[in-house]
Fold this sequence. Notes:
single chain, alpha+beta, Heat Shock Protein 90, 5-stranded antiparallel sheet, 3 helices, 33% helix, globular
Amino acid sequence: xxxxxxxxxxxxxxxxxxxxxxxxxxxxxxxxxxxxxxxxxxxxxxxxxxxxxxxxxxxxxxxxxxxxxxxxxxxxxxxxxxxxxxxxxxxxxxxxxxxxxxxxxxxxxxxxxxxxxxxxxxxxxx
Length: 126
């Protein structure tokens, strides 16, 4: 799955729908996955671009037999661009609690957050 979305508040709902459609048959903790993706996209919307900039976010997902991997990427100023906004960091704490592994790459072309979610488990038995 690959989606390019504008870095706007409306994209949080769009990303939730896209990841749900992609993952609903993959035996993952869908509620946790959707919440983590929502937090990641909300972080891009809130923190990645200076106010008034028309940014984009890149949402991609891939499934292997054991794991679903999701990446949310922006092309903003990066983590060290000096803009400190209220609430910065709380979304990442939530994501780290929900995903089995989290990788954060701060590049010259924005930030890429990759999350891994285990497939199969007690939530998939229902």
